[in-house]
Amino acid sequence: MEENNDMREVAAHFLRTNRGQYIMGQALSVAINSMNKVAHSRRETSNIEDMQFLLDHLFPMGKLATLKEIDDLEKQLRMALEMDDG
User: Fold this and answer.
1) Cα separation of 63 and 26, whole Å?
2) What is the DSSP letter of 42?
3) DSSP 66-81
4) Most buried one in 13, 42, 48, 58, CB count within 10 A?
5) How confident is the prediction for the chain on average, in pLDDT?
6) Are 28 and 59 in contact (CB under 8 A)?
7) Residue 36's domain spans which residues?
8) Is the torsion defined by CA of 64, 68, 74, 77 positive or negative?
């Protein structure tokens, strides 16, 4: 149990670093972008809004990965996968 607490402390410390802040913001950006693509009738709007709130107020460094960049990366990945299929 003590090891779990130690790892939680290490993770909490990492989260307070610039890299931790950036990674969390990037994860939120990717999640928001993906969730916004779900059909409107199935979209979890309140979750998206809460994620956006966290991104805006706690993890703004993640906004460096803009939605356009994410879309571009998704397109590149799709094209690469299509090329592999032959």
Assistant:
1) 7
2) G
3) -HHHHHHHHHHHHHHH
4) 48
5) 88
6) yes
7) 2-85
8) negative
